[in-house]
Amino acid sequence: AQSVTQLGSHVSVSEGALVLLRCNYSSSVPPYLFWYVQYPNQGLQLLLKYTTGATLVKGINGFEAEFKKSETSFHLTKPSAHMSDAAEYFCAVSDRDGDMRFGAGTRLTVKP
Amino acid sequence: AAGVIQSPRHLIKEKRETATLKCYPIPRHDTVYWYQQGPGQDPQFLISFYEKMQSDKGSIPDRFSAQQFSDYHSELNMSSLELGDSALYFCASSLGVVSGNTIYFGEGSWLTVV
User: Fold this and answer.
1) Pick from A61, A99, B40, B113: CA 20 to 30 A from residue B85's CA?
2) B58 contacts in A (CB within 8 Å)?
């Protein structure tokens, strides 16, 4: 079964600093990987996804992620954090049926 | 653009009661997924439907059942509710079940069991 592991349940950065949220996956087949963001009391919004092709994926709000097969990783980055980026971030992998399995989530706090 | 619509947004039930959550997928989407997110937890996959047939089953309790109707909306029925069923229930939809298709989530239905 496919799964993802998010390293660090809480990440705190200063406004303007680099954001790095880590995600490692486990899969016996080429994975499809996603990052979702969840703001308080809201649903899950897709940030970006990797299916095939270019391994560096750009998403909304200035986020990007790089699929590294050799490291089984799909870390999410943003060069400069904004206060509005404070939220819960979920890495996810979808299986052959399209069903999605989520990581435990990483809560991002942005300090002024 | 139209999104996934869930109703009700908030629901309070007593133990051993029954609750029904409804989900209206994005127009033309034929696949619906249900997820349960407990407080401080990651979303857990419950069940999915493609073209009105169950396509996959996750950690859905036997007390729960779901179906997808001819207009592609779906309902999640929960019986003999327990305190531990209190959670945010997400519905999501996609076009087809091809792995890698983007799954779009609704804003969730908050169920509180007291």
Assistant:
1) A99
2) 99
B1 at interface of A, judged by CB pairs closer than 8 A: no
**pLDDT tens digits, B10-68:** 999 999 999 999 999 999 899 999 999 988 788 898 999 999 999 888 889 999 999 99
Q: How far is CA A46 from the centre of its chain?
A: 9
Find out whether A10 and A106 touch, Cβ atoms under 8 Å.
yes
Minimum CA–CA partner of B107 in chain A: A43
Q: Do A97 and B56 touch (CB under 8 A)?
A: yes
One-letter amino acid of A103: G
Are residues B56 and B37 in contact, defined by beta-carbon separation less than 8 angstroms?
no
Strands (E), chain B: 5-7, 10-13, 19-24, 31-37, 44-50, 53-57, 64-68, 74-78, 87-94, 104-105, 109-113
User: pLDDT (tens digit, 9 = 90+) per residue, B62-95?
Assistant: 999 999 999 999 999 999 999 999 999 999 998 8
